[in-house]
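INFO  loader      accepted 1 record
INFO  loader      residues=118
INFO  predictor   begin
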Amino acid sequence: MAKIAVVVLADAETHADMGRVANALETVKEAKEEGDDVRLIFDGAGTRWIPELTKQESKLAPLYQAVSDKVSGACAFCAAAFGVRDAVKQAGVPLIDEYEGHPSLRTLVADGSAVLTF
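INFO  predictor   done
INFO  writer      dumping tokens
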């Protein structure tokens, strides 16, 4: 069983950004189906994706729903900085502030997780 942390950093502005998020979600889905210890984290501009992915009309909403149980959370600092803190909380996604307001990627590495960024 692999230990994987998928971190979404891509902004929500371009078609290429959407492609990166789709690839991140597909990676989480594959790992989940294989029984891996996988978690999904939204950081930086990637926090903007949470309100988008929770809209029913979003093309990626079904894929997000399939892996929503693997969402560990979103960076507390970045969600505020990118103006989506309330939307993240409203979506039921926990805010992570393990190290100076941010998720601790170092802790994930120290715990043996492969950290994949999209």
